[in-house]
Amino acid sequence: MPSYTAPVKDMQFLLHDVLKVSEADIPGYADLDRSFTEAVFDEAAKVAQDILTPLNVVGDVEGCALENGIVRTPKGFKEAFKTLREGGWMSLDAAPEYGGQGLPYLMHTAVNETFVSANMAFNMYQGLTHGAYSAILVHGTEEQKAKWLPKLVTCEWTGTMNLTEPHCGTDLGLLRTRAEPQADGSYKITGQKIFISAGDHDMAENIVHLVLAKAPGGGEGTKGISLFIVPKFLVNEDGSLGDRNAVSVGKVEHKMGIHGNATCVMNYDGATGYLLGELHKGMRAMFTMMNEARLGVALQGYAVAEAAYQNALAYAKDRLQGRDVTGAKNPNGPADPLIVHPDIRRNLMEQKSFIEGARALTYWGATLIDRYTRTGDAAVEGLVSLMIPVLKGFQTDKGFEMAVQAQQVFGGHGYIEEWGMSQFARDARIAMIYEGANGIQALDLVGRKLAQDGGKHVMAFFEMVKAECKAHEGDERMKGFVEALKTASKQLQQAGMFFMQNGMKNPNAALAGSYDFMHMMGHVCLGLMWTRMAKAAYDALDAGAADRDFYEAKIATGRFYMARQLPACSMHLSRIESGADPVMALAAEAF
Ligand SMILES: Cc1cc2nc3c(=O)[nH]c(=O)nc-3n(C[C@H](O)[C@H](O)[C@H](O)COP(=O)(O)OP(=O)(O)OC[C@H]3O[C@@H](n4cnc5c(N)ncnc54)[C@H](O)[C@@H]3O)c2cc1C
C-alpha cells in the first residue's frame, strides 16, 4: 500500500523563509510564527498520515453505493469525517461569528494540501462544503447566513455545487433547470443535474445544494440564471431538520478515479429552494467564489503528484536493476538501485521541481487571496483573477503528467493495482476536467483575463517579474535564475504581442495558441517561484542555517527547473506564432 508523509519542512520553508508570513502586512498574519504554524502542520500531518492515507485505497476499491435512496460511503469514511469535524479541521479559516477559527486562507490551503495528498476523494466532501460556505457568506442575507453557515462551518451539514446538466456542461447558457416563484418567497426547483460531487452521502445530517436554475423573466443564455439554496432536508425556524425536500439521487456515477467521492445524478422535482444573491445574477454569484474553488483544484494537481512522487522515490531507492554506468554503487548486491540511472533522476527531478514550484505558487496565491479579502485591495484581486486559470490549467495538467511519471518509475508494477500508483494517476485526471475543463481555462486566460481592466493586471504581472530580476542584479549566484526568467518572461510578452497584433483580425489566431500560452505562463510563474526560493535558500545558508543539505537541495532543484523546464517556453512561443493555420487547415469533414 502506498505511504505518505506530510512535507512539513517544505511547508515551513515556504511560509517563513520565502513568504515571510509573520512579517507580511496582511491582517492576521502577525500570529503566524514558526512554532505556531509548525504545531498546526504537525497535527495535520498526523491526521493525514494516520487517518486519511489508510482510507485512500479503501475508498478506491469500495467506492460509493446507492442503497435505498441513500449513498453509502466506503468503510471508515464516516468515522474519519467525524474525527476531522471534532478536531476542528473543517473550520480553520471560517469566520469566527459562524463558529470558525478565523485563520488565514493560507493556513487552510497548506493543511488542505496534506489532506488532499493523503486522500483526495475524501477531502472533496469538505472542499465542496467550503465552496458553499463561501458563496453563502458573500451572497447570503443575514438571515441566510445565520441559518446555513454555522452547520456548514462544522461540516455537520455539507455542501454541493450544481451547475452541470446532461446537455449542458461548459455552455451554461443551455441550462434547463427551472425555478418557479412561490407566494412565500421561495421557489420550486425542477430539473436534473449530473456529475454532482458529494451529491449525497451518509456522513452529514443534511446536504445544502447550491443549484443554478432559470427563473421567469431572466432572458436567454447565462443572463437568466439564478442561484438557489436547496437543502436535502428542509430546516425549521428553530434550526431543527424538517421534511425531506423533493430532491433525490438518480444514480452514482461509475468513474475512472476518486471512487471514494459520490458523483451523483441529482433530480429536483419541485424541490423547495431559496434565492441566493440577486435574481438573474447567479453566474456572477458563482464567479465570485471561483478563485478559491479553482485554487483548490490547482492544489489537487500537485498534491496528488506529491503522494505519487514520495512512493516513486522510495521505489527508486529500493528496486535493484542494472548498474550505474560510472561504476557500481551497490557492489555487494546483484544490481544498483534505480535511482543511479540518469533517466530515473530526470524523471524524479521533473516531479520534484514541479511539485515544489507549484506548492510555492499555490501558497503565494493563497496569500494574495488573504490580502484582497482582508484588505479589499482590488489590484491584488485583479492579479489573482489573471493567475487563477494558469494555476488551475497548468498545475492540473502537470500534476497528472507527474503522477504518470511516478507510475513509470515502477515499470510494470506501476500498472498493477496493488502498488497504488494507478490510483494516483486515475484520481489526478479529473482535476484537468472539472471546475472548468483546462481548454476553457486557457480561453478564459487569453480571451478575457489578458485584456481585463485594460490589460493592467498582466502588465502588473510582467512588472513584478521584472522587479524580481532587478532585485538580484549583481548577485552572481542568482545569475542563472535571473537570465532564464528574463528570457522566458520576454517570450511570454512576445506571445501576448502576437495575440494583440493578430487576434483582432482573426480570433482563431489567439484561440489556437491559448493552451500554449497558459502553459508558458505556468512555466514563467514557476520560474518566478524558483527564483524566490533560491534566494531564500541562499539567504538561509548565508545566515548559517544548520540544515545545509535542505537548502542546497532547494537551489539544485531550482537550477534543474530553470535549465530543463523553463525552455519549454521557446517551443510554446513557436507554436503560438505559427498562428491558426496549422491547427485549422483541415476542414471538419476532412478529419
Ligand atoms: C467526477 C466529476 C465531478 C464533477 N463534479 C461536478 C460538480 O460537483 N458540480 C457540477 O456542476 N459539475 C461537476 N462536474 C462537471 C464538470 O464540471 C464538467 O464535466 C465540465 O465542466 C465539462 O463539461 P462537459 O463534461 O459537459 O463537457 P463539454 O462542455 O461538452 O466539453 C467537452 C470538451 O470540449 C471543450 N469545449 C467546450 N466548449 C468549448 C469552447 N467554446 N471552446 C473550446 N473548447 C470547448 C471542453 O474543454 C472539453 O474538453 C463533474 C464532472 C466529473 C466528471
Percent strand equals 5-15%
Cα(first) to Cα(last) distance is: 44 Å
Radius of gyration: 24 Å
Which outline best applies?
Answer: globular
What profile does the largest beta sheet have? 7 strands, mixed
Our count of helices gives: 19
Instruction: State the oligomer.
Output: single chain
Mean pLDDT, all residues: 97
The low-confidence parts are none
| Number of E strands | 11
| Helix vs. strand class | alpha+beta
> Which ligands, by name, code or SMILES, are bound?
flavin-adenine dinucleotide
Please estimate the helix content. 55-70%
Tell me the series of helices and strands, N- to C-terminal: HHEEHHHHEEEEEEEEEHHHHHHHHHHHHH
Present the secondary structure layout.
Blueprint: H1 8-18, H2 34-62, E1 65-67, E2 70-72, H3 77-86, H4 105-118, H5 120-139, H6 142-154, E3 157-162, E4 178-181, E5 187-197, E6 206-214, E7 225-231, E8 233-235, E9 241-244, E10 247-252, E11 263-276, H7 282-288, H8 290-318, H9 342-375, H10 378-409, H11 421-429, H12 438-449, H13 452-471, H14 479-502, H15 507-511, H16 514-542, H17 548-565, H18 568-577, H19 581-584
Parallel strand pairs: 3-6
Antiparallel strand pairs: 1-2, 4-5, 5-11, 6-7, 7-11, 8-9, 10-11
The structure holds flavin-adenine dinucleotide.
The site of flavin-adenine dinucleotide has 18 residues, from strand 3, strand 5 and helix 12.
